[in-house]
Write a structure and sequence with these properties.
Blueprint (H helix, E strand, L loop, with lengths): L2 H28 L1 H12 L3 H33 L1
Helix pairs in contact: 1-3
């Protein structure tokens, strides 16, 4: 795999992951009561704790996108 192909791969991975993060955020915002009801009944977690869990999940997901997709892509762009 060439550096150009790897750079393209990481760029698209970043775009796709941020798109997924945006869709998740929109769903949690627009369908909050429905999503909370499902997760609360599945896992037995009170609804007031789910907001913190959702926020923690999205923050960790964003951090992983930065570490494994965006930063390597930026490094490859600097190297090129």
């Amino acid at each position: 795999m060439t550096m150009t192909e790897l750079s393209t791969l990481l760029g698209w991975c970043t775009v796709i992951n941020f798109g997924l993060l945006s869709i998740i955020a929109l769903c949690l915002f627009a369908l909050r009561d429905w999503v909370k009801g499902i997760h609360s009944s599945l896992y037995g977690i009170p609804g007031d704790q789910l907001d913190a869990i959702y926020f923690n999940y999205m923050a960790n997901y964003k951090l992983l996108i930065f570490i494994f997709n965006l930063v390597p892509w930026i490094a490859l762009q600097i190297m090129a």
